[in-house]
Amino acid sequence: MALDPIFPKVYKSLLKPLLFLKNPESAHHFTFGLTKKTFNLPVVHSIVQANFSLEDPKLEREVFGLKFKNPVGLAAGFDKDAKLIDEMAMLGFGFIEIGTLTPKPQEGNPLPRLFRLPQDEALINRMGFNNGGVLAAVERLKKRKSKVIVGGNIGKNKVTPNENAVDDYLFCLEALHPYVDYFVVNVSSPNTPNLRDLQEKEPLKALLSAVKNANDAKEKPKPILLKIAPDLTNGQLDDIIEIVQETKIDGVIATSTTINRSVLTTPKEEVEAIGAGGVSGKVLASRSTEVIKYLHQKSNGAFPIIGVGGIFSPEDAIEKLEAGASLIQVYSGMIYEGPGLIKRIKKGLLAYFSR
């Protein structure tokens, strides 16, 4: 049943308005639960596979030693607890990043903590690393069926002081190591107090060195990536390049959410009423691309970059790749454009790669 030509219109005219009647976190849980219940029903499974899959050797990419079926990934934050990997794989993602996971379960920040800004096609979140803990995620990973590449995004618990942060990252690395294909060290969330302090040069170098050494001691080391904020200065980005090269980690994810509200056109009083949180969505596209381009050019392409931030179309994805990204990830774009976005991006990339 060929639905993919009309699905974007159906999503935007019918499904999205219904979902947007709910508050954002309720809508997330609703779609999450519905996907879990329905995608594995034989008829639904067949329809999803027929309409969302697109495979072609021209889309394949080999990056930090891993072979990706295509360069379009699901960013961390959507499936924090590894509950929906098999179902998301059906939508045609080349890789899926789970997390951010912490050693102990934590509830995150008080509700409400996720907000839509439709005028900007943006989201504001202050989730606060809400997750069920890394050990619960491991039990789910043991049971997954799909072969999709999975990344483990790891962080520290809110109650862990920064001077002990390395212990939390090492705990998560140890627990997840047999079950994920790569790791992401997340020090860029603005929603855990003082976490971004770990992006400073010396603390970051110490943290990454400890994680890299623990990983290298394994029989089969996994790629280690660093996720950075879009709010870093050029001087700080220069430090990132130096640290990546000194510690010999495998790459960078650019970028997480921004704390810069000047990019928004939503009325200031509406934004101020929402309060603290990181901004994602279309408004992040330009800055994210700038960071990717800066890192790529200043480092002479010394390490792979996964580009994320404001990807709402095939053109946005191509822009990230032309700036120097090897792979891309989506999240907010899928909320506003629907899950058909993944196939549309892949079609656009296929045409781009075939030129």
UniProtKB/TrEMBL annotation:
GO annotation, cellular component aspect: cytoplasm; plasma membrane
Active site: S189
Compartments reported by the entry: Cell membrane; Membrane
Pathway field: Pyrimidine metabolism; UMP biosynthesis via de novo pathway; orotate from (S)-dihydroorotate (quinone route): step 1/1
This protein's UniProt keywords: Cell membrane, Flavoprotein, FMN, Membrane, Oxidoreductase, Pyrimidine biosynthesis
The organism's place on the tree of life at top rank: Bacteria
SUPFAM superfamilies the record matches: FMN-linked oxidoreductases (SSF51395)
Biological role stated in the UniProt entry: Catalyzes the conversion of dihydroorotate to orotate with quinone as electron acceptor.
Subunit structure: Monomer.
Protein name per the record: Dihydroorotate dehydrogenase (quinone)
Biological source species: Algoriphagus boseongensis
Gene name tied to this protein: pyrD
